[in-house]
Amino acid sequence: MDAPAEPAPTAPAAPRALMAPATVLERCATGISGLDDILGGGIPRGNMVLVSGSVGTGKTTLCLEFLVRGAERGERSLLLSVTEASDKLIQNLSTFEFFRADLVSDGSLVFVDLPALYNKLGLEGEELSADEIDIVIRTIHDLVRTLGVKRLVLDSLTSVCYRIRRDESIRDFMLRLGQSLSDLGCTSLLVSEIGPTQGRYSMHGVEEAIVDGVILLWNTRRQGDILRVLQIVKMRGTAHSRAQYVIELTPIGLLMAPHLKGSQQEGV
Amino acid sequence: MDENDQIFGIPEIDGPLYAALPPGWLALLSGHSGTGAPLLAKQFAHAGIGRVPVLFYTTFERTDDVRRAFTTFGWDPAEVKVVNLADEYYERVLVRGLEIARAREQGLTLDELVGAVPRDVTARSFSLTNRMLSDLAGMDQPFRLVLDSVDFFFEVLEPHDVTTVARQIRHRCQTIGGQALLTLHSVAHDRAVYGLLQDLADLAFDLRAEPRGSFYAHQLFTEKVANRPELSRITPVHVGVGGWAAGAAEGKSG
Prior knowledge:
The structure holds two protein chains of two kinds.
Chain A: H1 16-19, E1 27-28, H2 33-38, E2 43-44, E3 48-53, H3 59-72, E4 77-81, H4 86-93, H5 101-105, E5 109-113, H6 114-120, H7 130-147, E6 151-155, H8 157-161, H9 167-183, E7 187-193, H10 207-210, E8 213-222, E9 225-235, E10 244-250, E11 253-258, E12 266-267
Parallel strand pairs in A: 3-7, 3-8, 4-5, 4-6, 6-7
Antiparallel strand pairs in A: 1-2, 8-9, 8-12, 9-10, 10-11
Helix pairs in contact in A: 7-9
Chain B: H1 11-18, E1 25-31, H2 37-46, E2 54-58, H3 63-72, E3 80-84, H4 85-106, H5 110-115, H6 128-137, E4 144-148, H7 151-156, H8 159-176, E5 179-185, H9 191-200, E6 203-212, E7 215-225, E8 233-240, E9 243-246
Parallel strand pairs in B: 1-5, 1-6, 2-3, 2-4, 4-5
Antiparallel strand pairs in B: 6-7, 7-8, 8-9
């Protein structure tokens, strides 16, 4: 894939001194060491972050590790899945060494299929009305509040917004969802599916303006190999590196290394 | 007239009409509330017992009430397959509507939130039309069918879908020699739709009740006999111990 719309110059990690925040906000450590390093310790607690990328760039895996690491730390973590059934996700997760099935059985890691909630709530039309959008927000809020969820992943925001459609409704939905989750101290990652050459971070282009952060993932080709690349485009509440990092999805989790200048040859 | 050639089992009405009918036909029976059309529909079903399989689709009565009405007049309900479309519609569609309303208003419980399972994508949604027509499609011999009433279909389907249902019933009657009666309220529907249904029917009846002092005098208007307009007529009727019969009620001739 091409580097996305606004490719930042390839650069090594910024010196730690430049990333120190002026005021220290409580952090939600992702548990992915390289990512926490460039975020100055983690995502500011309560932030709503877009994880944006095309197919096969590692969005879901990054998000799942974020949840597992949180559950290990005693933070109840919730995956709201729209596109894949929970059973299948758990099955896929079990191939990673960092996954622990006991976190699911003891309720620390919770999987909920959003289509099942849609079904319970009779949200079956092609497009959600304003009232129905209210119901979706309220239901997610109830779920997070009742379970005391501190980390949430919505996989994917794109699928939800596909049924909201109008830009102003998406903006309103995201503002209210973000406020609701932030009030509950819940840090959230929203998966945004984009095409390899889409030129923006989300389907509608309004999502990235609302969220507190954008983590961008894409594929790039180097000497015949396809590399996954990660870049923090935006993160409110913290200084952060905007450099590009090559990531590797390994059985023990996501590993990061600086994407060296000149290494990017062509997008895939 | 053969004793089997019964429409309602009222000789004065059946006799002139039956000979004019093709082997398979569709009849329409309309009436205002309280005129007794549902009872006449049951009598139509009863008149088929012992000759052909009889299906009685009710959309507003409890099944037990239908059976009780049969026995009140000495008719055996055991030979009639009573299908309660309203109950099935309630269980398959309206109950879900109530559950959704509760979930939307009060929110989902924790068990519902974390234990919800996705909708079975292979599950068939309930279709009032398919429910009835599938029975009909399975018939391979002459039959008698009552749909009491079409009014319910108008509540849940578009008018053109209702006329399509009527057309399909009529076609099935014509194909295998069925006899079907559809009831509907005289004035609850758009006159154009009413007219379309009358056009489709081989027979069209309207049961009316006129006040006569302290009681009502009933008349059955035979408004349409396909290709035999001279057979249209008005017949005084009353309810006796055996159901509807021709003639004014004794002592109530007005």
